[in-house]
Amino acid sequence: MEKSNRRDFLKKATTATAAAAAVTTIGAPAIVRAAEKIQWKMTTTWPPHFPVLGEGADKLAKLIGDMSGGRLTVQVYGGGELVPPLEAFDAVSQGVVQMGHGAAYYWAGKMPAAQFFAAVPFGMNAQGMNAWIYTGGGQELWDELYAPFNLKPMPAGNTGVQMGGWFNREIKSIDDFKGLKMRIPGLGGKVLAKAGGTAILSAGGEIYTNLERGVIDATEWVGPYNDYKMGFYKVAKYYYYPGWHEPGTVLETFVNKKAFEALPKDLQEIVTTAAMASNLWMLCESETKNNFYLDKMVKEEGVVLKAFPDDVIRKLRGYSAEVLEEVVAKDPMSKKVYESFRKFQKQHQAWGKISEVAYASMAE
Ligand code: CA
Question: In angstroms, what is the span from residue 76 Cα to ligand 1's centroid?
Answer without folding.
Answer: 23
